[in-house]
Fold this sequence. Notes:
Layout: H1 4-10, E1 14-19, H2 27-36, E2 39-42, H3 48-51, H4 61-72, E3 76-84, H5 90-93, H6 97-114, E4 121-126, H7 149-160, E5 165-170, H8 178-193, E6 199-202, E7 205-206, H9 216-224, E8 229-237, H10 241-256, E9 261-266, H11 292-300
Parallel strand pairs: 1-2, 1-9, 2-3, 3-4, 4-5, 5-6, 6-8, 7-8, 8-9
Helix pairs in contact: 6-7, 9-10, 10-11
Bound molecules: (3S,4R)-3-hydroxy-2-oxopiperidin-4-yl beta-D-xylopyranoside.
Residues 43-44, 126, 203, 234, 275 line the site of (3S,4R)-3-hydroxy-2-oxopiperidin-4-yl beta-D-xylopyranoside.
Amino acid sequence: ASTLHAAAAEQGRYFGTAVAAYKLSDSVYTGILDREFGMVTPENEMKWDATEPSQGSFSYGSADQIVNRALSHNQRMRGHALAWHQQQPGWAQSLSGTALRNAMVNHITNVATHYKGKIYAWDVVNEAFDDGGSGARRDSNLQRTGNDWIEVAFRTARAADPDAKLCYNDYNTDGQNAKSNGVYAMVQDFKARGVPIDCVGFQSHFNSASPVPSDYQANLQRFANLGVDVQITELDIEGSGTTQADNYRRVVQACLAVTRCTGITVWGIRDSDSWRASGTPLLFDGNGNKKPAYTSTLTAL
Length: 301
Ligand code: XIL
């Protein structure tokens, strides 16, 4: 196949990208989006601050624009993210305890119900583990409502949209380390106790300080062996030329080697669309031209 998603589909996988609603009027952007990608993650539009700017008052305009467009172009949706310590509206940041817990549950119920039946997989909880060597939960206002906040989030999402796959998503969990060990133990515990979890997302933001880990495939496989799907959810790799192309190839090969690695999403289309302040981490240059990393990715699929 000659495009990313068509090539991934031949392997029973998807290939997706993050999309920003305000770019959907850019025909170069949408041209690449519709030609190359079969899965769409809203880059910011489904986050708590965007969807519930004041408590109990929901705002779905930008997210609906992305969802309706994707579904009418035969693209599936990854929902991102129901519960996260970042990009919370100010009113939620100032809540705590039972009031915050109830607000989280109400938020998840409302958003997952609004999109019921339209989402392939939800990032139910994003980035809940600490970066230090402890493997512990990250301190956050949500964590301080009680250690069961993550399982409550998953049960709430399942009740609202029983057909969506429910994922835990994080960064710096791509290789085997204290943080991914902590997530692994949580998933193992959830499976043992029947907490509904279907998948684990590995953000995979790579650069020279955080390169593609040598045990990437082994780490994906150990999670898959727990009985969950795994996905690469926010891939970008700093660099250029052959080195970057080789790193993208390694990521694709690691996913394809794991039966339950169901797809790969890059975090933006052109280098100029990247959230990173500098660098050239994506598959298309600022003019929308294919980079060597595009070719190595397509060839590896
Ligand atoms: C980023 C977006 O790309 C930016 O536009 C925004 O300013 C901040 O968030 N991990 C995640 C994503 O789960 O939601 C983040 O997206 C990147 C890191």
